[in-house]
Write a structure and sequence with these properties.
The chain is an alpha+beta fold. The protein folds into two domains: 118 residues, no CATH class; 69 residues, SH3 type barrels (Roll), CATH 2.30.30.40. The protein contains six helices and ten strands, in the order αββαααααββββββββ. The protein has a three-stranded antiparallel beta sheet with strand order 6-3-10, with no helix packed on it. Strands 7-8-9 form a three-stranded antiparallel beta sheet, with no helix packed on it. Helix 4 packs across helix 6.
Length: 197
């Protein structure tokens, strides 16, 4: 397909609106990393204010991105991937955390969203040590786990009880630890105290 045909396909898909915030002003194609081929399958149609917020080093205005609560449910992979990445960058906001807990991305889209790379190229990310639970099962971003012992949460006034189900874990740099939210608090858990649900 020619570049002009790809652009026409993208404009048709977007129906003259920004695919994130639904604005009609100043639309242009935005390639989702690592792709820069202009293909509609790797590109979203965005307005100028959304594009400006995505510039390297730009601070995200969390109020502007409430629109992600709609766009993350898009049937189009590039829109959903970009929405997931933005919500993940804003996960200090309660609405963004809640959104990430609700949304489901198939394995290919989630790999693309997490790695910033093409799904086919993401295999190299699996070369790094992967976290495993107490039984040796590999843990992935967004998995649910069960605590296998009571854990005293430092800096908080509660104990995470054995048998508690913890949803939507977040992988971090240390393979023996994951991040999770318990009782509204983000904490780091050692994987040796977890069992994949």
């Amino acid at each position: 397909m020619t570049a002009l045909a790809e652009l026409a396909s993208l404009l048709d898909r977007a129906r003259g609106h920004c695919e994130l915030c639904a604005s009609e002003a100043g639309l242009s194609p935005y390639s989702i990393a690592p792709f820069d081929d202009g293909a509609a399958a790797h590109t979203a149609m965005l307005c100028a204010p959304c594009t400006a917020q995505l510039a390297e080093g730009a601070q995200l205005d969390s109020k502007r991105w409430f629109c992600l609560q709609q766009s993350i449910w898009s049937e189009h992979a590039p829109v959903q991937v970009l929405s997931w990445r933005l919500a993940n960058r804003l996960r200090d906001e309660s609405w963004a955390r809640d959104l990430l807990e609700q949304v489901y991305l198939d394995e290919e889209r989630l790999t693309w969203a997490q790695s910033g790379g093409a799904p086919a190229e993401a295999a190299s990310a699996h070369d790094a040590p992967r976290p495993v639970d107490s039984l040796g099962a590999t843990l992935a971003e967004g998995d649910s786990v069960t605590l296998i012992k009571d854990l005293d949460v430092k800096g908080a006034a509660f104990v995470a009880k054995r048998g508690m189900l913890v949803k939507n874990i977040h992988l971090i740099d240390q393979a023996e630890q994951v991040e999770a939210r318990i009782n509204g608090t983000t904490i780091v858990l050692k994987t040796m105290f977890l069992k994949k649900a």
